[in-house]
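Q: Here's a chain of 568 amino acids. Please give me its 3D structure as tokens.
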Amino acid sequence: MGPCLSNGTGKQPVGRNPGNGYQPNHAIDHFYKAHGLQSMFSDLELTLSAKKLRARGIFSKSDPMAVVYKKKPDGTLEELGRTEVILNNLSPSWIQKIRIVYNFEIGLRLEFRIYDIDTKFYNIPVKDINLNEQDYLGEASCYLSEVVTKQNQQSTINIQNKNRQGYEGRLGTLTVHTEETAESKTTVEIVFRCTNLTNNDVFSLSDPFLKISRNAESGATIPVCKTEVIDNNLNPTWQPVYLTMQQIVSKDNPLIIECFDYNSSGNHELIGKVQRSMSDLMKLQTRRAGANFVVSHRGHDKVLKGQLFVDMYREIQTYSFLDYLSSGFELNFMVAVDFTSSNGNPRLPQSLHYIDPSGQLNAYQRAIVEVGDVLQFYDSDKRFPAWGFGGRIPDGNVSYCFNLNLTPHASEVDGVEGIKGAYAYSLQNVGLAGPTLVGKVIDKASSIAEKSMFRNNYKYYVLLLITDGVLTDLQEAIDALVKASELPLSVLIVGVGNSDFAQMKILDGVSGGPLKSSEGKLAARDIVQFMPMPEVDAGQISSIETLLAKLPHQFLTYMSGKNIQPLG
């Protein structure tokens, strides 16, 4: 690739804009907020080995092959890949790697099944082997998160039989090792230039900007990033854009590069578009060639005089989210629950706090369980601070930050089940009151995150705040979030019920732009993600995974801003 490669500038955290500070991709942020799509993932390779497998033959050892599946939400299994067959070996180390995509926000459960392959299948491709005709040696399962959070990205699990009965270790053990592919750690810095653009304005020149998108497997077009707007210029050169392989999927994936004439009304006019892969863009830079824009005209593509050039193409090796996790960084889960009276009497079925004797979870319980089930793997001790706000506690006072377990000095509970238990206990002993004030509970989470910074314990905190109402302290909440934006903290807000959540969209930055404190200070970075639970119930968003999708990006932005590198 010659001049397109990095010339030894060193590693930069993913998402960082070298030399200029972090520049957010507003187009993709807006798209994912609006449509609930994931923006970041990592390509991993699984390497498998086993020890002390069963010998099914009397006079020979087994000839094992491993098959890897992922468990889908409906409980069915989808095959991801197969290893090669290793002959006559009860402790195989398979060479064939299994490619898999890691999404932080998805609690992906993997299942591994091991078979002793019959000799008559030795000379056919493993993908064509009929598993029903092979001897079953056992199976094992784990969450992908359990493996990637280990410092060596390796986990050893016991192999069991199908009904999960039998003595531990009786059927052997399986070791799963993960490694991120090099592509997942690559960021490409590109400088785009255009010449001879079509002028769409009458009394001045066009104000062009570029929007880069990619095609999803579903056929939808997903925005990846956009450039700044350059006023009155038909031959613009934009500031560098930074694209990660996590965003564009692969170098050969087609990208749609559209040039628009900016209009303050938001109705930007298309000047033309080009479709090229990252590999194609690299060739344009090497050859110093241009690509002509096209527009649709009467059902056909009309080639324009205007051209797109790539003045710089540079690949930078980056630190990924998994680099931090596998080196010892942790995510610490925290929860705050709304106990204001607008939730309704908890003893009545129509209440948002009603606990159904049948075991069906209410919206608060669902948010706790679904977020907690993902985040718990990233916290080694699984002890989570949990608070309530807006309730009348047993001493008769209304508190806007009380320990959910109602003990005076210990807010931490054991695991997700501990949060659920403390929540149920508080519902029996705390009266619903109000108004809805969240500033104090955000400050409480911030104080924990701030103390952690001085102890150098390499934790990043995630506060899940669940509420049903309109905030009474909007500016106080904004002030608390602006302060928290300097700390290792993200705030996930789930809105339950049918209230007007317009204020939450302000906190999320969807409405009104970056948060500004009452003293005029802007938030250092985006730390808030809001999602209304009714959208999940209505099927408008697939799951609460959407709420978690931005966390790796927010984590990396903080590490970049503080110049913190993975341990070791």
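Q: Can you summarize the key feature?
A: Residues 1-39, 535-542 have pLDDT under 50 and may be disordered.
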